[in-house]
Amino acid sequence: MKSFLEHVAEDLLSRYGTNLSRVAVVFPNKRASLFLNEHLARLAQKPLWSPAYITISDLFRSHSKLQVADPILLVCELHRVFTACTGIDETLDHFYGWGQLLLSDFDDLDKNMAPADKVLANLRDIHELDDTSYLTPEQREMIKRFFSNFSEEHNSELKERFLHLWSHIGDIYHQFNQKLAEQQLAYEGALYRQVATDETLEFEYDTYVFIGFNLLQQVEQTLFSRLEKQGKAIFYQDTAEVPPCHINLISAPTENIQARYISEWLDADRINDGRKTAIVLCNEGLLQTVIHCLPENVDKINITTGYPLGQTSIASLINTLINMQVHGYSLRKQTFARRWVESIKRHPYATLMPNDFASQRYTDIQPLLHWLISLTQTIATSKSPIIDSPLDTESLFRMYTLLNRLSGLVDSGDLQVDVITLQRLIVQLISTTSIPFHGEPAEGIQVMGVLETRNLDFDHVLLLSCNEGNMPRGVNDTSFIPYALRKAYGLTTIDYKVSIYEHYFHRLLQRAKDVTILYNNATSDGKTAEMSRFMLQLMVENKIPISYQSLKAGQTPQLHAPKVIEKTPEVMLQMQKRFEPKRGGISPTAINTYLRCQLRFFYHYVCELIEPDTTEDDLIDNRLFGNIFHKAAQLLYQNMTSTTITSMMLDDLLKEAVTIERTVDEAIKQEFFKINDPSRPLPPLDGLQLINREVIIKYLRQLVEADRRLTPFRILGLEKWVDIHIGGWKIGGIIDRLDSITDPETGEERIRVIDYKTGARHLKAMPDVEAIFSQEAIKDHSDYFLQTFLYAHIIRSNTAQPVSPCLLFIQHAGSEDYDPTLKLGKETVTDIATYADAFIALFKRQLDEMFNPQISFCPTDDRHRCESCPYASLCRG
Known about the structure:
By secondary structure, the protein is of the alpha/beta class. 44% of the residues lie in helices and 14% in strands. The chain has 33 helices and 26 strands. It has a seven-stranded parallel sheet with strand order 9-14-8-15-16-7-19. Strands 20-21-22-23-24 form a five-stranded mixed sheet, with helices on both faces. It has a four-stranded parallel sheet with strand order 2-1-5-6. A hairpin with a 2-residue loop joins strand 21 and strand 22 (729-742). Helix 16 packs antiparallel against helix 20 (419-431), helix 27 (622-637) packs across helix 30 and helix 29 packs across helix 30 (687-708). 31% of the residues are buried. Residues 127-132 and 142-155 have low confidence and may be disordered.
């Protein structure tokens, strides 16, 4: 069966012979011209003068002195006019999306040659109502997003600002066009309108052949009519209705499964038919997956649809570099955060960049842009095998061009934003930029988007992801101009957009020998994906035989369970070295880690794999918060260790608030900023840091108030190292505070081993000593008991006085009856000696198990612990 373009070629040759030099063939897009040219050459069977091939856009632009302005420049210029006319001070990045929408409305006004003053005047009048009840919920939501301070309680404020915008809509339109005209610039619609209304135009060619134009806009109709009246225009439209003989309709649970189906669909006949075989992507985001799913025996392929720039390596690098500059600089360390730098160093292009890429911070947009441009240029010109594909080369060129456009707009003064706004703008531009593929369209299997199929016919058609929302694609009525006004003045409506896609859909299927359509039937958030309305129409009309199939996932996920690790001689030797006395021996934290998960103990202490530090450099996380409080408590009491502390002394501390505040500031300086020089001031704190400072001051005051109720007492030690030998191993650690108080019930003096806790939880008592060594009790923080009991035992071994283990939770220390002394069951542990024998026996048993070569390292049974474990992916891989 002859294709549409073959019929056109035959007719052109019958009309003009082989001399088509005075003929211009106009297509909606460029692609079809290559196919028509081939048909002409084949059918002529002798040398011929080819016609000129131009697009409709070329035809309009070549007849105007104006230039279509850069899209970014257009929105920047519109933003300035918008701000000047309305007085609404929206930042450019907030305005950008709305500017594109407003620009689209202006473009539509001009392309349909509507009377702009009347449309915009009516638009202004239609909103001059007494309330906002005329707005649909969708319109109210749109306005709410636009005016960030809008709420239901501020209805009058909404109306005032809304009317203020619309009362100037006509001024915005006219001033915007005037500003552009002064620069010999225009947006596409304005240029088209100027050409369509210019009666003095002279046309270069004798004949203009318009092929495949349906549903014309008014500017096109006007220009076509003028050329037709002059006898210079002929038209070809594909009006044939030749439905396919059969359609195969396939549902699939995922789009990846649809892409994998390609290797099955591409049998030998379809591969051999080459360019007569088309894979059409209703969702062009599938391109990368489709390319990977093509079978190896496909040696020729032509890709027409663009590849998203946002999915390329250079886009991820630029995004990370900007994030490092905007969010990754640590004022505390005066350098870039390690996690951002390391993230960039892991990027595939990292080896092509200079080593000092993170040596300087940029707070102004032009130096930042120059830095990004320089890095992109360095990578592109590196001649490295890493840049081994045309996609890499083209994506680097596109990114370089985009950044240079922005830099040029900054130089000209058209783009005036801060670095954060620039980042948002770049993200938006990257997301809307695609990379065109270059190749020979007349050869190989055709992979294309829906728009690229215009005027082309294929024998074999495979449509992927033919779902509502993809076909028709992104059809919505988002606009500043209501539907009623659009309909009244002949502007583009949602019906028009749908009809265009309906035409593309049905035209693609006609003349095809076989058609296979796949769609996604997955359920997400309780909603099942819907097939395209055009598919439903085919099913209802029942004129074409349709067969139905479904694809199912053929793979089941493999669950990897953590494996037991044997204590080989090499492992035992490493354990001996790791916990030898000169390296500090064994800490209570190591034993608690073993109880929590033996594999985590193995990776951390035996393999000595350093756990990643996920702390944000300028963020005071829970660990740093605790460290700062501990340091502040130490600094506050360190000058009182040689005397008895009285209530008067603590009263003075509480009255002189500045002492506590200075102590906290010094602790922040040492622990957070790592500044130990007393002469250096505390660096400025940001909002969250100031909040943390106030909380720590409050906690330190609560500690002093709790201590006041114990006066008189003595501080015996602060941040004191203690150790002991148990079962041949050195065991030790640091006690936060060691003091001596008079027991309020017995009147006897006893020593307290205190561990400060800044958390909010209420600690449960352990039922007995054995529970302290239970893996199940870890969730109730038996690890706190183990550490404090051990330190208390070490102190008790060197004194005749009773020693009690205490966990002092600062948040609960304010209550009058608060007692931090630990309990076993209902009994308060006023002297660790009562439980020492049982505790040490269990401690030795635990050490014997840890160092028993016959007992392997086993994973925890509590999978919730794996969720926060840094080694989870390692032991389950």
